[in-house]
Amino acid sequence: MAGLLPVDEALSRIIGAAVEAEPETVALSDAGGRVLATDLCAKRQQPPFAASAMDGYAVRAADVAQLPAILKLIGQSAAGHAFSGSLNAGEAVRIFTGAPVPSGADSVVIQENTIARGTEIEITEKIDLGKNIRKAGLDFEEGDLLLQIGRVLDPSALALAAAANYPEVPVYRQPRVAILATGDELVNPGEELRPDQIIASNSFGLAEIVRQAGGLPIDLGIVEDRLEALSEAVDRAVSAKADILVTLGGASVGDHDLVQPALAAKGMQLDFWKIALRPGKPLMFGRLNDMNILGLPGNPVSSLICGHIFLVPLIRAMLGLPHHPDLRAAMLGRDMNTNDLRQDYVRATLLRNADGTLTATPFPLQDSSMLKFLSDAECLIIREPHAPAMKAGTMCKVMMLR
Questions:
Q1: Which one of 31, 57, 278, 319 is CB 3.0 to 4.6 Å from 92, fit for a cystine?
Q2: If phi over 0 gives left and psi between -120 and 50 gives alpha, with beta otherwise, what is residue 104?
């Protein structure tokens, strides 16, 4: 087990190899979840005019200082249909929420505090100057910095960009991630299986990890264990202009593990291929021209956990985003034995206690082929190399999965 690269060192090398994706401009309607490639400043002020915050009557505060106040009704102002005249002493304009406040008015009386009398209106409650009016530029002024580079365009950011009059926005291009499953034993879901074959599952989970991280998955399908077939698949990844090629299985040194030789023949510069990690020791990382290569283990749990630990940070680095995994403290719900020289990521359930603390309970079996426990897991308990035995109730560190 000598020569295994520590997890933190492997992660540092992977993130360090990331090349920031170039910007592109997309329609705002297609920008959800994308990452801003530049600051956005307001192209206009919002609101663009003084607007009513209530349904009621636009008045001059001086005219309603003494009650009862009877004012002449001279028109109305609705959203999109402003009153074109000007308000003089003793006059009022019927106004609706969002409508422009007429020239000459300085306050809005809510309709509940009025009595309509034909062409006149009686004001029954005093108001303060400027009451129920949203001033022009209350939200933001033209030129204000609204959204900073690196902001993920969530619903509120999209709405703000629209209000600032951006029909399209500059965002980082989504990293293109080609996913290649290898192995004569694999078939796709729904296909006929021989007795010695299994269903390929890793690529479906990895593709969603890529999507959630902000990347664009490219499915290269399943390739049999032949150098020629693997070479052709690598060519397809290059033709697809993949920024990252993720291989699933075949990256170790067995007689049927041909991914490394196939990539080496293409000119891949290998950085490392064994790390002190459980699950996922046979993890490979290298570079082929402008394409990063991440060779993940073939076992489903190993490949998905390694995807969370290594692939997500690589994609985020290409998008100019920092690596901040959701790490939390929790109490251990079951005794755990002494750990060996590998950093362990243990599937566990998570109980949220009444006092706000968390209890993480590892599943009794941690075999890297068992997907059901990974699907049921809410977190991974992280155990450092050579960690001593731990009793239930001891505090531990967990990485949230969902």
A1: 57
A2: left
Q: Which residue has the tokens 């599943």?
A: 363
Q: For residue 385, give every residue at least 6 positions away whose Cβ sits within 8 Å of its Cβ, in sequence order, or none.
A: 6, 276, 339, 340, 341, 342, 343
**Is the domain of 214 the same as that of 259?**
yes
What is the tens place of the pLDDT at every residue in 9-68? 999 999 999 999 999 999 999 999 999 999 999 999 999 999 999 999 999 999 999 998
Residues 179 and 312 in one domain: yes
Q: State how far the Cα of 117 lies from the Cα of 29, in Å rounded to an integer.
A: 48
Does some domain include residue 2? no
H or E element in which residue 292 lies: strand 291-296
Give a yes or no: residue 122 inside a domain.
yes
Domain holding 76, by residue range, is 51-134
Q: Are 187 and 304 part of one and the same domain? A: yes
Paired residues of 5 in beta bridges: 275
Closest CA to 364 of 400, 399, 333: 333
Q: What is the pTM of this model?
A: 0.89
Q: For residue 1, tell me if it sits in a domain.
A: no
Q: Among 316, 306, 301, 311, which residue's Cα sits nearest to residue 274?
A: 306
